[in-house]
């Protein structure tokens, strides 16, 4: 069983009267790759900043290894951060960038601990002393870390001569060389092209497993979260919507927001007529869900890849194709079912204007309780291909950490 390392208890955060985090309760396990996932402004970066010590919550407590650390500054926490902007020093080569933090004498509490939890768990600061590493140890740790991030032989390179992916590796090496227990990563792949992002997703997972430490990753990219994480935390409006494995989040979303945000979803109104029997569009279908009240109104999720196109005469429902988009491996087609537009992924070409039938197996349905998000998602009447944003103006203006201030600490 994994050991709990960090806990946020009843944490809220307000800025100028606006609630950014609303009574958050969550814990992070040791050696876990956990991703905070959600749209801009949902509170994920604020959560990261509170863990890193850059913000003190308006209310609630932050615990590290069972000890309250609300007032412990960033440089005394066993946490390091990789920023969206890598904040590398252009006048230093790769080796000196990685070694920079090791050359600064560190403030360490007498007795080797940062705070004394005491009987109340509130903590009481001990006297700090400065510790400086030897040149030999610095050299050994820098070279070990460059090998971990696959930059052995790049020691004398200027950072300006490196590619975006290589610069990111330098930033990761610099953050890990101090041997933190937790690495915070704030959308570090945002500035990379799609191919390099996919390569770096694999690299980050490899590094996390090799180092055996906790990674807490922030992103709004659903594919990124599913590909790398042990645990995904979906957030919206300062609240946690769902916590689970990537498979659980995708296959068993808790509400319409999660279903829509994690991949494409057709979300329709339904009625549970009985256990494992759901009604949509006036037709009853066998499903695998149970535990609902008889005739309870529900939200029904049907993923685009779970719909089989058949001849009209064989279809449980029939609809009209209104849009076709070629996506390489498949077609995205929009089909009008009684005024509600569905997205279907298929390898079969269906021209605009064609009338088709669809077949749905019992496990194609995922039934959810009605929520505040019911009726807000799942209709593709205004469908257009979605592309990830390279930059997030709201993030840059409101959530960005002052990297220079961090390293001066």
How would you summarize the topology of this molecule?
Layout: E1 4-15, E2 18-29, E3 33-37, H1 44-52, E4 59-64, E5 67-68, E6 79-82, H2 94-99, E7 106-109, E8 115-116, E9 124-125, E10 128-131, H3 135-148, H4 164-176, E11 182-186, H5 194-211, E12 214-219, H6 222-228, E13 231-236, E14 239-244, H7 246-251, H8 256-261, E15 266-274, E16 277-280, E17 283-286, E18 296-302, E19 308-310, E20 317-326, E21 331-337, E22 340-346, E23 355-359, E24 366-369, H9 393-399, H10 403-408
Parallel strand pairs: 3-12, 3-13, 6-11, 11-12
Antiparallel strand pairs: 1-2, 1-4, 4-5, 7-10, 8-9, 13-14, 15-16, 15-18, 16-17, 18-24, 19-23, 20-21, 20-23, 21-22
CATH architecture of the largest domain: 3-Layer(aba) Sandwich
Query: How many domain units?
Result: 2
Portion in helices? 10-25%
Spans where pLDDT lies below 50 across 5 or more residues: 112-123, 386-409
CATH superfamily of the largest domain: P-loop containing nucleotide triphosphate hydrolases
Question: How would you characterize this protein structure?
Answer:
The protein is α+β, with helices and mostly antiparallel strands. It has two domains: 4-247, Rossmann fold; 267-369, Nucleic acid-binding proteins (OB fold (Dihydrolipoamide Acetyltransferase, E2P)). Helices cover 22% and strands 33% of the residues. The chain has ten helices and 24 strands. The strands form six sheets. The chain has a six-stranded mixed sheet, with helices on both faces. Helix 3 crosses helix 4. It is elongated.
């Amino acid at each position: 069983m994994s050991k709990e390392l960090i806990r946020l208890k009843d944490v809220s955060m307000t800025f100028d009267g606006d609630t950014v985090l609303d009574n958050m309760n969550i814990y992070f396990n040791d050696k876990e790759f956990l991703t905070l996932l959600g749209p801009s402004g949902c509170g994920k970066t604020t959560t990261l900043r509170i863990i890193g010590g850059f913000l003190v919550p308006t209310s609630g407590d932050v615990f590290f290894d069972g000890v309250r650390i609300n007032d412990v500054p960033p440089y005394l926490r066993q946490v390091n951060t990789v920023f969206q902007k890598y904040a590398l020093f252009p006048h230093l080569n790769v080796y000196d960038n990685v070694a920079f933090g090791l050359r600064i004498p560190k403030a360490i509490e007498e007795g080797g601990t940062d705070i004394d939890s005491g009987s109340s768990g509130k903590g009481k600061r001990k006297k700090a002393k400065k510790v400086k590493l030897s040149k030999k140890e610095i050299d050994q740790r820098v070279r070990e870390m460059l090998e971990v991030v696959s930059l052995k032989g790049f020691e004398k390179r200027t950072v300006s001569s490196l590619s975006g992916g290589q610069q990111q590796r330098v930033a990761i090496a610099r953050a890990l060389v101090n041997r933190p227990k937790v690495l915070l990563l704030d959308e570090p792949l945002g500035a990379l092209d799609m191919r390099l992002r996919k390569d770096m997703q694999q690299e980050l997972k490899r590094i996390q497993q090799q180092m055996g430490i906790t990674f807490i990753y922030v992103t709004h990219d659903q594919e990124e979260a599913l590909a790398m994480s042990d645990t995904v935390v979906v957030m919206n409006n300062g609240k946690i919507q769902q916590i689970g494995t990537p498979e659980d989040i995708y296959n068993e979303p808790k509400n319409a927001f999660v279903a829509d945000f994690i991949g494409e979803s057709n979300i329709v109104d339904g009625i549970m007529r009985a256990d494992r029997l759901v009604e949509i569009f006036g037709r009853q279908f066998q499903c695998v869900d149970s535990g609902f009240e008889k005739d309870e109104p529900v939200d029904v999720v049907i993923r685009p890849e779970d719909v089989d196109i058949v001849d009209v005469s064989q279809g449980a429902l029939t609809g009209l194709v209104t849009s076709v988009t070629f996506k390489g491996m498949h077609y995205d087609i929009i089909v009008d079912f009684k005024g509600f537009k569905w997205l279907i992924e298929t390898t079969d070409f269906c021209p605009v204007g064609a009338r088709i039938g669809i077949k749905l197996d019992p496990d194609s349905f995922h039934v959810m309780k009605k929520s505040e998000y019911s009726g807000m998602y799942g209709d593709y009447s205004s469908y257009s291909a979605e592309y990830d944003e390279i930059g997030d103006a709201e993030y840059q203006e409101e959530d960005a950490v002052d990297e220079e201030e961090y390293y001066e600490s």
